[in-house]
Prior knowledge:
The protein is mainly alpha-helical. It folds into 2 domains: 3-51, Arc Repressor Mutant, subunit A (Orthogonal Bundle); 58-205, Orthogonal Bundle (Tetracycline Repressor, domain 2). Helix content is 74%, strand content 0%. The longest helix has 24 residues, at 142-165. The chain is elongated, with a radius of gyration of 20 Å. The relative contact order is 0.09.
Amino acid sequence: MTSRNRRVRRTRQFLEEGLLQLMQEKSIKNITVRELTERVAVNRSTFYLHYMDIFDMVDKMEEQLFEDFYYELNAEENSGPLREEVYHFMEVALSFLERNRRTVLILCSQNGDHTFLKRMEQMTKERAKVWIRSLMGKEACERQVELATAFFCSGCVSMVADWLISPEREDPREILKMMFQLVLGGSNGFTAETGSAGEAFSFVSAR
Length: 207
């Protein structure tokens, strides 16, 4: 990385940290470029070299988060059984969210971008829908697949959100174990491919 690239990265880090601080104090709609640049001692002209406005900056921050998440998710090719693919996705997601907890919580807060969480949910649904369609087989119609996907994803997203918000969070491995057992145990109603809830417990315990 060149010295110029390091300066650019450092400047963006200053701006992002300043914006997160301001978003803990007020709505993003009420944050101005002047206020942000004064907070982090960066020239306004420098800000505009990187972003069009505050909303553009938030969009770019979110886009970078998703890019990082996709990279980690696809860093290892997983061509094993379905339950291993599901486990891998949950493991990567929980690890990523824990490491980026502060940023995610601020972005999803009342002062943040309310579309961020919806985008996270949509991304999860797209993956889960493929798994559930495979589990339910050809007999299931598209509407049944959509309803089952909504059921599983709503439960997982709610559990993870509650875990992230809690000041006394459980170890992510404990949440992973619980979520995996609930999802794979529940899916046993569709097919024997994933195994019973007991087999799901044994699978997790062996990890």
